[in-house]
Structure formats: structure tokens, C-alpha cells
Write a structure and sequence with these properties.
- This protein is mainly α and 412 residues long.
- It has a domain of 204 residues.
- It contains 20 helices and 3 strands.
- A 3-stranded antiparallel sheet has the order 1-2-3.
- It is globular.
- The structure holds zinc ion (2 copies).
- The site of one zinc ion has 6 residues, from loops.
- One zinc ion binds next to loops.
Length: 412
Amino acid sequence: MGWHPELAASIRPFSALQPPNVHGQIAMLAIPADVLLQVYEATLGQTPFLIEHLSFNDWASLVAVMQNKPEELDNKIREFASNIAEVCRKSAIENRALNLITAKAEKIILELHGYDASHLDSARQVSIAEGSETFSDTYINRMSLSHVELDYLKKKEAERRSNAHIEITPLTRDAGHKFAKNNPFLPLASSTWTEKAMQRVHNRLWKLDTFNYAAPISVEAYMALAGLTEADIDNCRTTARNATIYFAATRGGLDADFPPIANLEKGKCPRKPLLHQKGIPKFPTDLSELKKLWNAGRPYLKCICPGCEKNFTWFDHMIRYVIGNLDKVDPRAPSHKIRMLEFQALLRTKWRKPIMAQISFIFMRECMIKIVHLITQNKTISAEEILNFEDFINVPFYISSLPRSFQMLKVS
Ligand SMILES: [Zn+2]
Ligand SMILES: [Zn+2]
């Protein structure tokens, strides 16, 4: 994939660099040329280059800084530049180790609930070992390569390592078996990993091996796109803490001119969907409920036609897809730059409440994943002990959902 034609003028000084993914470039459309140049210059002559490695979330957070705290822009870019090498290093480790980390955590969770986890003993334990170099140093040293040749080889080698995991994971499976027995279900992958993985499925996140991946859009990125304030975010935190569901499935659902699901994928329902939120589950009574638990409070779109089977998508999956396919929202707009502005306007008006619900869901899930980490670190921890951790004091929701399912720990 090349550079977006509408970026041609602003990226001229660095057009030889590898362009970011579609989403990164769409976010770049919302950033003036002089700021892009500043980002480029921040890692001039030193790899990894910011232009090649900033994520969609990073670009979106620049948009937020420009709009809300322009005086902090220089610092923000400098911070990106000093962190980028570490970000890339961690991402390479995650690419190698994610399968194993997920399998280990799932084994613990499944066994706690009394389910068979033997498929995880040998499965998916790939390349945890430090990825070995393709060529030995001694061999390369004898090749008398020039500085330029050597740099190029190193760069390619780093790319190979960072893509290693993504290439071996069977990402797409039959949609009908998303909650099948042996599919992974714990959403432990970082947004960096998800952003890379979803390139393989043309930004259709629902095609990955589990429905539980959240779109790689951070709270900061939602803030930037929807023009939310810190006070709005505090409200979302309170909503998450109180487990408030604004769009319960038992009620009518919100009609805010969401695109038909057929616009996201051919053959799906062509009618306009409504927005609902998943409820807060009680103790999961079977394996499939345990696998779906991680979507408590999550906003989704569903059409109203009775018996319609191809009618469901998570709200955040839709948002992520639409950002990469802005013509689906506003086909008549004269340019992508305008489409991006119109899309942001939509998030600031009609879709503002769903975005707030999405952010509340992110906070709910963050708490759940923290609990998973506590449990996987210490299998004999009790529900009370979990709730004694500072983060979880006064959070009744987590008593009624997740920790309750771990009450059995006290018995064993
Ligand atoms: Zn990188
Ligand atoms: Zn339908």
C-alpha cells in the first residue's frame, strides 16, 4: 500500500519512508503539514522512524493535543521519539509470546471454572524463545557488506522478527465457530498487535479468531475524534464503576443512522441497525457464557428484522472499519480530508452517546483484565483479596460479575 494521494503534498519530504496503514494515514489527514514535518524530523537519521511506527492511536492523540493543549505538542512529539525504540522492542516480544501468554492464562481460567483445558497444553506454544537470527554474525561479518547494506539487512531482519507471530497464527476461522471449544477467548492482545493483525482481514475485526478483540482505538483516540473532555471521561469511569447500561437489549435500542451491516460486508443485513449494549452477566453457567463474559457492557449494532441471522456487529468494530472506509459514511464528500472531518462531526453529535458507552466498556474490560492478571499471577487469590486491591475498592460491579465466579477459589 502506498501513500494516500491527499497526503502527497505534506509527505513530500519523507515520501521514501514506508507509509503507515490506512488508519494511520487517515489520522494524518487531520494533521497539518508542518506538524507532520516536525514528527518526521524528530527521528531524522535514527531508526525506528516515527513516521513508520506511530500507530493510529498515536496519530489520533496528536490530533487531541493540537486541539486541546497545543502548547504541549513539542513535548508530545519528543516523548514519542524517545519511546519508539522501546515500543517496537516490546511489540516484537508480544508478537512472539502472545499465543503462549494467552494459552497459559486461559488454562488457569478454564480450570478454575472446572472446564477441560488439555488442548492448551501443547497447542499454540510457538516461538517463545528469542527469535534466532536468520544469518550468523560471523557469516555476515565475512561478507564485507557496506554500511548501507548492513543497515538495510538489519532493518529487514527486525521486520521479520516483529511479524513472526502474526504470520504463523491462523487468524481467520469459520465465523460460525467463534466460540468453539478450542478458540482463544481472553482479549489480552495489545492494540499494537490487534492493529497489525487486522491488516490481514482487511480491517474486518470480526473475522479474527475470536469476537472478543476490541478495536485498537484508545480512550485518548476516542477523545480526540469525538472532542470529549476530561470531565466526560470521568463520567465514563463512574458509569463503568456503577455498571450502568444505557442501551439495554430489553429496551428499544438507539437509532442514530448507523450504516447497515451490509455496508461492512456483502451479504449481511441491508437494513439500518440499532445500538444496544450487552448486559452485566451473572455467574457464567457454561463455557460459552464464560467466553462471552469479557464483553459485559459492550455496545453493539443489530437490525430489528425478526429471524435475521446476519445482523450483528460490535459498535467499535464498525467504527474501526468505517475509519478505513470513510466513503461508506459519506460517499458524496469531495475528499477524504472532508470525510474525516465529517466523521469526527458525526462522533461529536449523533454518535457521541455510543462513544461514551464504548469508553465505559473499555474501563469495565480493563478492570476484568486486571483481575485476570491478578489471578494468573496467584492462583489461590480469593475474591475478597482481589477486591482489596486499591483499584477495585467500591466497585460493586466486579463483585456481581467476575469475582463472583472466582468465589469457588475460597472453597478449594
Ligand atoms: Zn515498530
Ligand atoms: Zn436484518
